[in-house]
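Appendix B, example 12.
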Amino acid sequence: MESVSQQIKSDPRYPEACQSCMNCGVCTAICPAAGYYSYDPRMIMNLVTEGDNAMLTEIMSEDVIWYCGQCMSCKPRCPRGNIPGVVIQILRMVSQRNGLFVRSAMGREQLAVKRSIGHNILETGYCIHPTRVNPAMHPEQGPVWAWMSDNADEVYGRFDSNYNREGPGNMRKINRKSLDELDRIFEVTGCKKLWDTIESESEKRIDGRFTKYD
């Protein structure tokens, strides 16, 4: 089996995302997340280029790789054309594939993302759809959202959106053929296999079979 460093560098996105980092720190200086968290894109780029498997395994087992908001502010500002945000994408995927994500609180949230946004895409064609947002689960939205949810046909109908109905228009019901195509894309690209890993590794955690150093 490839080491985590080899897995990172064999990703097809890697050659563009990490071409020739000179460790200047511009990415950290411009990074919004670095202002809120103990997060240093320059350090992560350095670890990736050095290829230290022990250190890479450690950071992929922590919250740090989930701090990035994927704003890509780093992309246009790197003097060497590197994209630290894409390197983070690769680290997240390798973390998931190797079951390392369950070792951190933010990593474990990927199960909820998979079961909500991921399933929404395949079942409705949308990342988020009003029919899938239960007001009882989001009390922070307040009574206005609850009222809109109960009266969605009337509210969205005012905007000629064809809300949740067949035919053209915004927020329309996606036809079965398109949903089947999406399902096939998720299958052939390996997304469903990754989802299975997220489920199985999360189940280990739930069952108490996980230890930090297993």
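The chain has two domains: 4-97, 110-206. Residues 210-214 have pLDDT under 50 and may be disordered.
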